[in-house]
Design a protein that fits this description.
Diaminopimelate Epimerase, Chain A, domain 1; 8-stranded mixed barrel
């Protein structure tokens, strides 16, 4: 057994117990996939991120408690915060090589010392027919249904969205894509739109704050609202806010991070960064 550092960060949050918690494990070399998956299952958070420094950038991977995923916003934000605050405090930008290409995170010093901006690929959804089973899943009728990297349902108002209690057993027809539900924000709330994200196929019933979902939400709402700068709120129990800029084929998402925990774990065959 060898010892590795581990951090837990509340991403898209300005105080602990808010936003989306992610575990971050810096490595000198990759662990076997089965070990990383076991660590993620042991952590039992929506994502555990592992990264390895390679020259002037990092290789980054994300695991839910049950699967490795192609893209994760909040665990990328959390990983960058550990690099900026602990491993490379002089850096102003960090680049990650991932399954979804190169992702960059920069310090958002104009907002605050623990604020960072993600640079992610856009995902433009296409409108589709309302699936017959959608109302059964949501417990209410949706107004529209859109298909992208993640499927998206528009419902009639933020109040409806906040009170949803989806029936996950009825989600089989989604074919592993999981589901974004969104609505316009309440008047005078300071936000442009609200959302929730349900990911039972990835081992996460509801994700508290989902950066990658906003790759789909950004173009959807930019087209409806006629603007490319927006403020979003993910209305989970923990909740979290994002400042969003849509620029051509990229989505820039800014949020805060708060470190909740740092410690050590013991795993077989490990070498720390």
């Amino acid at each position: 057994m060898q010892t590795l550092p581990i951090y837990q960060v509340d991403a898209f949050a300005e105080q602990v117990f808010r936003g989306n918690p992610a575990a971050v494990v810096p490595l000198a070399h990759w662990l076997p996939d089965a070990v990383m998956q076991a660590v993620a299952a042991e952590n039992n958070l929506s994502e555990t991120a592992f990264f390895v420094a390679t020259g002037d950038h990092y290789q980054l991977r994300w695991f839910t408690p049950t699967v490795e995923v192609d893209l994760c916003g909040h665990a990328t934000l959390a990983s960058a915060s550990i690099i900026f605050e602990t491993l490379s405090p002089q850096a102003n930008q960090v680049s990650f090589t991932t399954r979804s290409g190169t992702l960059r995170v920069t310090r958002a010093q104009h907002i605050g010392p623990a604020a960072y901006t993600l640079d992610f690929p856009v995902d433009v959804p296409v409108r589709a027919e309302l699936p017959p089973a959608l109302a059964e899943v949501l417990g209410t009728s949706a107004l529209e249904y859109w298909v992208g990297r993640r499927n998206l349902a528009l419902v009639d108002g933020a109040g409806v969205l906040r009170h949803l209690q989806p029936r996950f057993a009825a989600l089989d027809w989604l074919q592993d894509r999981n589901l974004i539900v969104t609505a316009p924000a309440e008047t005078n709330s300071g936000f442009d739109f609200v959302s929730r994200f349900f990911a039972p196929f990835s081992g996460v019933a509801e994700d508290p704050v989902t950066g990658s979902a906003h790759c789909t939400l950004a173009p959807f709402w930019a087209a409806r609202l006629g603007k490319t700068r927006m403020r979003a709120y993910q209305a989970s129990a923990r909740g979290g806010a994002l400042d969003i800029v849509l620029d051509a084929d990229r989505v820039f998402m800014t949020g805060h991070c708060v470190r909740y925990l740092e410690g050590q774990i013991k795993v077989p065959g490990a070498r720390a960064a």
